[in-house]
Each structure stands twice: as structure tokens, then as C-alpha cells.
Write a structure and sequence with these properties.
The protein is an alpha/beta fold. It contains five helices and five strands. A hairpin with a 4-residue loop joins strand 4 and strand 5. The termini are far apart.
């Protein structure tokens, strides 16, 4: 075509955008029928904090989770509002949150919030990874 020579070829077009639109519609129907959100992310845990100056600690906790193979993320803002963090987790369909403030850290604990069950429990920081691994594995084995 561009070389000025005839080159034998065969082509097929399936309208990939249309195929994706149909697949997205089916996914939305399944999500609506089951009452779950379509997840745009594979993140399993959102690491969130209450209070100012906790960004480094959020990074440390996330790094600990990453090292254990848990898909975690944290907000980039130095002092995010709790409502924004909670809203983000709900919007993205992130199943668990790790929450902490100065009081929890002084006690060597964090709170783990199960977004689907709408429950929250205090967990020792040392046992956080194992606790989250059990929670994440639980729905898959049911």
C-alpha cells in the first residue's frame, strides 16, 4: 500500500469496541444482580489514617502489606480527610481498610474495616499481615 507494490494480504475486522461495550454491559448486569460494584482496581486493602503527619506511617504499613503479597494502596495527600478516604474505598470497591491514628499506634494496633460486612476490629500491628491474609482468603474459599 505505501511501498507502491502489491502485497497479498487478508484482513478481518470484528469491531472490538462493540465487543467491549457488550462485555461491559454484561458485567454491569451481573454486578447489579448480585448487588456488588464493578471494581476498577485489584486493590485489596486501602491504608488510611486519621490525623496529621501520618503519611510516612501509611507508606510503612503499605510496604509491609506489599512484601506479603497483599495488593494495598494509600492516599498521596499528606493529611487526607477520613471522609475522602472512606469514599474512595467505597467508590473503588476496595474490600478492606486499615485505619489508624496516633492513639492506635501508641497502643501498637490498627483497625481493620471490612467494607462489605460493615464491621471493624482492632488488630495488633504485628499480626496485621496474617489477619488480612485470612480475611482475603475467606471469600475465595466460601
Amino acid at each position: 500500500m505505501f511501498s507502491g507494490k502489491d502485497v497479498p494480504a487478508v484482513g478481518v475486522s470484528i469491531g472490538i469496541e462493540r465487543v467491549f461495550a457488550i462485555m461491559e454491559g454484561q458485567a454491569r448486569e451481573r454486578a447489579a444482580a448480585s448487588g456488588t460494584a464493578i471494581r476498577a482496581t485489584e486493590t485489596q486493602v486501602l491504608v488510611a489514617s486519621i490525623g496529621n503527619g501520618m503519611q510516612v506511617k501509611r507508606m510503612e504499613v503499605a510496604a509491609k502489606l506489599w512484601a506479603a503479597g497483599i495488593k494495598a494502596e494509600f492516599g498521596f495527600k499528606p493529611n487526607p480527610k477520613m471522609g475522602d478516604q472512606l469514599g474512595y474505598a467505597l467508590e473503588q470497591g476496595i474490600p478492606f481498610m486499615v485505619l489508624f491514628g496516633e492513639t492506635e499506634l501508641q497502643q501498637g494496633q490498627v483497625k481493620v474495616k471490612d467494607m462489605a460486612a460493615k464491621s471493624e476490629e482492632a488488630v495488633a500491628l504485628d499480626g496485621l499481615v496474617g489477619h488480612l491474609q485470612r480475611l482475603i482468603a475467606a471469600p475465595a474459599s466460601s
